[in-house]
Amino acid sequence: MSAQNGNGSPHVELRQVTKRYGPVTAISDLTLTVEKGSFTALLGPSGCGKSTMLRMIAGLEAITQGRCFIDGADVTDLPPAQRRIAMVFQSYALYPHMTVRDNIAFSLSIAGASRKVQRERALEAARILQLEPYLDRRPAELSGGQRQRVAIGRALVRKPEVFLFDEPLSNLDAKLRVQMRFELAKLHADLRTTMIYVTHDQTEAMTLADTIVVLDRGTISQVGSPLDLYNRPANKFVAAFIGSPSMNFFGVDLVGASDGLASVVLPGGRGARARVRGASKPEGAVELGVRPEHFGLTGVDDPAAALPGAVVIVERLGSATILYVDTPAGQLIVQGDGNLAVRPGEQIGLSLVEADVHLFDASGVAL
Ligand SMILES: Nc1ncnc2c1ncn2[C@@H]1O[C@H](COP(=O)(O)OP(=O)(O)OP(=O)(O)O)[C@@H](O)[C@H]1O
Ligand SMILES: [Mg+2]
Description:
The chain is α+β, with helices and mostly antiparallel strands and 367 residues long. The chain is 23% helix and 35% strand.
């Protein structure tokens, strides 16, 4: 469900936006276009400015410098209520004394909608979110996932043009998060409304979004589809943030580069090749990045082995095996099949495929 869903026309735009809180610059000269109908995730570590961005789009936070557009109209100075957006937060803060039905319809009632409209919309939202059996219950009588669905229902009845979500699933346990992820993907597939979704969880961003915006200390590090970011990270920050377990990095000697292929010497003295984009040989130190799932396992003396290693720890996940391997390049994390026949203490070889390794210059930019 995370195919390219946007239809190509801009819906929400931030143009050269800066946000300062006194001496703190939370967002720095940031420009972003969110396509109509897309599911866009704002992804990054704590404090990188995700919520600040979302709150500026919602109109809950004033923009220090720059402009915000929705549907081509400058909304920078419009109050939240006039932006036709709805926001769902991590803490869903339902009204405990109201039924699910009244919680969902509440925003309509304060907007002065007729009882009939309130009833109809609440019912429609409850149907979409599978909350019909619970309409007469109070929040205390619901599970966490059901409560979060009520919070989404409250946003749904307002029929917004843009949904803004700020980590809506982070209060839920792991199993429920996966289930709610599915529900949100379905909701987007059904409604085709633009959704902007803040998360620090790369799995959530990868599975839900058609476009991911990776933020690093108030600036955009890279924008792309989940697989763009996974296959072609523009820098070490994105490379390390996307993928789990995280990519391994180690210093290598670059000995030459031509026709999009770089030759490197690995710690321990063996050679490897890496696909690169630039033609010229970069100056200074370079690092190789290899995802745990991209190592091949060989015998330690196999000519294909780029690195020899000793297995330190074997983690059995069932679907995969995670190895911690001591090598001349330091301790590396390697992922293999679930039934991999490897024991702690064993000597192994690790092989590399040139298309699956990444090279970064001293400043962390992908070559
Ligand atoms: N009201 C405020 N006053 C001062 N600084 C603030 C305020 N709100 C946020 N900040 C700062 O702005 C930066 C971005 O904060 P923001 O809440 O947007 O981060 P975030 O990416 O949402 O993080 P998290 O994942 O922890 O929610 C942080 O350095 C934060 O300390
Ligand atoms: Mg936040």
